[in-house]
Amino acid sequence: MTPTATYRLQLQPGFPFSAAAAAVPHIAALGVSHLHLSPVLEAVPGSTHGYDVVDHSRIREELGGEAGLRALSRTAREHGLGLVLDIVPNHMAAVPRHNRALWEVLREGPRSPFARWFDIDWEAGDGKILLPVLAGRVGDEMDKMHVEGDVLHYGEQRFPLRGTTGHLPPAELLDAQWYRLCWWRLARTELNYRRFFTVSELMGVRVEDPEVFDATHAKIVELVRDGVVDGLRVDHPDGVADPEGYLRRLDEATGGDCWIVVEKILTGDEPLPPGWPVAGTTGYDALRQIDGLFTDPAGVAELAADHQQFTGAPEELGGRWEATQRHAAYEVVTRELAAETAILVRLAGLVCAAEPRLRDHAPWALRKAVRELLVRVPVYRPYGVGDEEALAEEAAAGAKETFTVPEEAAAVDVVRDLALGRLGAGPDHEAFRTRFAQTASALRAKSVEDKAFYRYGPLLSANEVGGDPGDPAVAPEAFHAYCAGLARDRPATGTVLTTHDTKRSADVRARIAVLSECPERWADFLAQITEEAEGLPGGSAPDPQVAWTVWQTAVGFTVPDAGRLETALLKAVREAGLRTSWTEPDAAYEKAVSAFVDAGPAGQAQHSVARFVHELAPYARANVLGGTLLHLTMPGVPDVYQGSEREYLALVDPDNRRPVEFGGPPPDGLDAEKEALTTAALRLRRAAPEVFDASATYTPLTAEGPAADHCVAFCRSGEVVTAVTRLSLRLEREGGWQDTELTLPAGRWADVLSPDREFTGGRVRVSDLFTRRPVALLGREGGVR
Questions:
Q1: pLDDT > 80? residue 211
Q2: Per-residue pLDDT for 686 more than 60?
Q3: In whole angstroms, how far apart are CA 436 and each of 187, 198, 239, 421?
Q4: Is residue 520 a contact partner of residue 663, using CB atoms and an 8 Å limit?
Q5: Contact 651/565 with Cβ under 8 angstroms?
Q6: Mean pLDDT score, 604-621
Q7: Which of 167, 462, 561, 725 sees the fewest Cβ atoms within 10 Å?
Q8: Alpha-carbon span 571 to 117, nearest angstrom
Q9: Does residue 492 contact residue 637 with C-beta atoms inside 8 Å?
Q10: Rounded distance, CA 757 to CA 600, Å?
């Protein structure tokens, strides 16, 4: 069953299945068809997200166990709701004491039946798994270890001992194991198992192996076939060895009629691989399109110039997007992903050594070729569809230009052809192709999402997964073309505005996006607030890039909560890695950032921030309501994030994963408007799914007149019309709607949000359409209401 709309709940020990069941009446009343649950399999105790799975055969006891999940399913169905589960095929938590499969591998080595579960390069590790878990060098940590029976203890961590080695002296005991305990810093260069991005605590799983697939998916398949679960969200498919093969196996195992969407990040116009048997993506591509509509391209250019002047940042460290992105990629591929690069170089060397025509490529030339091609992959993972082969040629040409010795540049051709599968077949060939693709995905995520996005910040609302901060604006014509493509090719794809992974919730981004319409007002505010804050103890920013980020975040967040702001901004400066980082923290610098937040946006300067926010509130309201209505009525299956039916202000995780309190006092203001709009649109979808489903049509409606560019409208299946205001501040500045008109389809149309208002098909003044609010949702009289 394809959902009409889903509602995402973040389960955790503080919000288990029972809490979700208590929220079901409220959620059902909104009009969604399915609950969308974060991962439910057994995870590391205390985990607040569930992506650190330790046992695929059990439902997480901290959430209420399998009985609790089945009870939630029954409660949901009593209210007309089904369930969609988030599943994690790519990795498990590398925590032996909780992960039985990993425990057995550490105890028995490569002969363990569980050894095939994990992507371990035993040869690269001299027959051992490198475990980077020690706080310091092993020689300094040995006295903190002790043996009890056949278990090695190190703090709260536990490791199994091989055979009867427990009696050996400490140094010999460590050498006798199938694993090598080492200082955590060695993960960067010596790790020999595949991990999730650069997170060594999450170990890659080989779901391409049929036995591993069956073992890790039996419980999920059982829940689907028992009718407990109707749909699946697949986390990070780019990480698995063969995404298409995996998805085909999943589709077959679940009976072929389970609604499946994948967390596939598409870059630019990149298509979803056509062979994947899925309904579509989880919706970050839709997020970019919607956000882009409410971004003024002229203002973005002015903000970029102001940002560079204010911060003085070099082009490659936040001054220009393309340079910042490329520089970050070089940093990550040579540092955080050095171990992954080394494995690729070794595999390329093995292929070259085995084939006479490829011999004598120097290791350093292969290493440079791998790095230079990886940083030039323009998407998360190359799949050889669309224009990617042509892009590979372009990337190869650019990579060759970096070589000072032309003869050594021939290594680029070898690496490119290996990555594209052009050099024949064989275990090493296939291993290289797969690992290159997996590493490219990790590199893109870490260099763009977790580094460049935190360095380049003219307009922070543009810095979301799948976005392009260098060119974030989307014209109405491009939006309509995108929607028409969805209606034709992926009508049941997922769409989102806020998720557990967005760096800023949609309502925070909506406020920041207004700045693209008034860069001169932002510049004046920034100058005034900087002068005001500098007069406060601790009010001087540690550096101008932090100042810009802090004040823009405060304008979007509006909530003067020091703890939440500090947590998000400390994460931002650590991810940026310019003055401090997760692995090399600068305590004095971070203290200065915290003091600046406390003194400024969370301190006395909050009143000036509040005044500026109040000035922009009408335009933020237009963005919030406009984005909401587009999301809920455009092609695709909208996913409503917990609490976002009302105004939802959240920053990067863990802030956006806090439990939501359902119920409470009746909403007012924007809360009330947004909830009424959300409920009206979702109930329309539920009442008449055929208007929005795979058979539905999408017809752009074009406004005419001096302000036509500020109205985006479309009709779904001839029954529902959506119209929204875009760039409302600029619209006001240019004189308002004047005599701009929108042509409605023939017939009588009722305002779903204000039933006392009706319109007749034909030319309608846009100012009349938007008399009460900056959006309109119309239903054909006698049809959908």
A1: yes
A2: yes
A3: 19, 15, 11, 11
A4: no
A5: yes
A6: 97
A7: 167
A8: 33
A9: yes
A10: 46
pLDDT in tens, 423-448: 888 999 999 999 999 999 999 999 99
How far apart are alpha carbons 754 and 680 in whole angstroms? 11
Determine which helix (DSSP H) or strand (DSSP E) holds 87, and give its type and residue range: strand 82-87
- Residue 389's pLDDT is 65
Token pair in block for residue 493: 């794809």
55-77 mean pLDDT? 98
Q: Average pLDDT in the 203-227 region?
A: 98
Helix (H) or strand (E) holding 329: helix 321-334
Going from the C-alpha of 715 to that of each of 20, 557, 702, 749, 783, the distances in angstroms are 35, 33, 11, 12, 14
Q: Coil, strand, or helix at residue 752?
A: coil
Asked if 686 and 741 touch (Cβ cutoff 8 Å), the reply is no
Distance between CA atoms of residues 257 and 77, nearest Å: 19
How confident is residue 461, by pLDDT bands cut at 50, 70 and 90?
A: very high
Structure tokens at 169: 């002296």
- pLDDT value, residue 385: 61
Can you say how many angstroms the Cα of residue 316 is from the centroid of all Cα atoms in its chain? 24
The pLDDT, as a whole number, for residue 388 is 59
Please, are residues 713 and 701 in contact by the beta-carbon 8 Å criterion?
yes
Chain centre distance of CA 722? 28
Tokens 């974030």, residue? 472
Kindly state the tokens that stand for 617.
């509130």
Q: Give the model's confidence band at 539: pLDDT under 50 very low, under 70 low, under 90 confident, else very high.
A: confident
Instruction: Please confirm whether the linkage preceding 654 is cis (ω < 30° from 0).
Output: yes
- To the nearest whole number, what is the mean pLDDT of the chain? 96
Provide CB contacts within 8 A for 205, sequence distance 6+: 89, 90, 91, 92, 117, 118, 119, 212, 216
Q: Which two tokens stand for residue 531?
A: 């002068």
d(CA 151, CA 161): 6
- Other CB atoms closer than 10 Å to residue 224's CB: what's the count? 22
Q: Distances from the Cα of 438 to the Cαs of 344, 356, 407, in angstroms?
A: 11, 28, 29
> 37 - beta bridge partners?
9, 85
Question: Looking at residue 666, what DSSP letter applies?
Answer: P
Nearest-CA neighbor of 101 among 143, 67, 136, 54?
Answer: 54
CA terminus-to-terminus distance, the chain: 24
Render 524-562 in DSSP notation, one character per residue. Answer: HHHHHHHHHHHTSTT-S-SSHHHHHHHHHHHHHH----H
3-class DSSP state of 73:
helix
What CA–CA distance (Å, rounded) separates 668 from 299?
Answer: 32
Rounded distance between C-alpha atoms, residue 48 and residue 59, angstroms: 15
Instruction: Compute the C-alpha angle 548/551/552, nearest 5°.
Output: 80
Largest Cα–Cα distance in the chain? 89
CA angle 208, 39, 28 (to 5 degrees): 130
Contact 328, 444 (CB under 8 A): no
The DSSP result for 22-59, as a single string, is: HHHHHHHHHT-SEEEEPP-EEESTT-SS--SEEEEEEE
Q: What is the DSSP letter of 427?
A: H
Q: How many residues does the chain have?
A: 785
The CA distance from 206 to 570, in Å, is: 35
Q: How, if at all, do strands 711-716 and 698-701 pair?
A: antiparallel
Instruction: Please report where in the chains the tokens 């569930």 appear, as a residue.
Output: 50
Tell me the C-alpha distance between 527 and 521, whole Å.
10
CA–CA separation, 781 and 355 (whole Å): 73
**In this predicted structure, what is the pLDDT of residue 665?**
86
Q: What is the pLDDT of residue 390?
A: 63
